[in-house]
């Protein structure tokens, strides 16, 4: 399917402020497709202890949390693919297990709320 393969290197999160630049693109950890950054969800690792056994990964829809970020389509399909390949931990340079509960919650809520006008999925509690 894909003809030209360009070697994509993971860059540190520095972007030159370009005015009138094309839409910034990012690669989804799940399906490995490049897409506009605005249609991807940023993930960041929250390291709270020096050597945790598991690092909680959080969704960062506002793209303002500090630290290394990873990008994924906000769909459970892409999340599952990323989990299977352990792409999240690798993208975030984590050597321990990752806890994606918050990310999954966020995505599932978005998927439940998108498309239908029903409001039967109110968060309880
Ligand atoms: Zn994807």
Automatic annotation (TrEMBL):
Q: Which Pfam families match?
A: YlxR (PF04296)
Classification via SUPFAM superfamilies: YlxR-like (SSF64376)
According to the record, the residues making up region (Disordered) are: 1-23
Judging by the UniProt lineage, the source's domain of life is Bacteria
Q: Which InterPro entries match?
A: YlxR, YlxR-like_sf, YlxR_dom
Locate the YlxR domain: which residues? 26-108
What is the recorded name of this protein? YlxR domain-containing protein
Q: Record the organism.
A: Mobilicoccus caccae
């Amino acid at each position: 399917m894909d003809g030209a393969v360009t070697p994509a290197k993971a860059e540190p999160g520095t972007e030159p402020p370009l005015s009138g630049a094309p839409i910034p693109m990012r690669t989804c950890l799940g399906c490995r497709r490049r897409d506009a950054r605005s249609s991807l969800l940023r993930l960041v690792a929250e390291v709270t202890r020096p050597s945790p056994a598991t690092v909680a990964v959080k969704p960062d829809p506002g793209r303002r949390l500090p630290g290394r970020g990873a990008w994924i389509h906000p769909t459970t399909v892409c999340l599952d693919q990323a989990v299977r390949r352990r792409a999240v931990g690798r993208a975030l340079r984590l050597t321990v297990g990752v806890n994606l509960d918050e990310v999954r919650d966020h995505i599932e809520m978005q998927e439940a709320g998108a498309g239908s006008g029903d409001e039967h999925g109110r968060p309880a509690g």
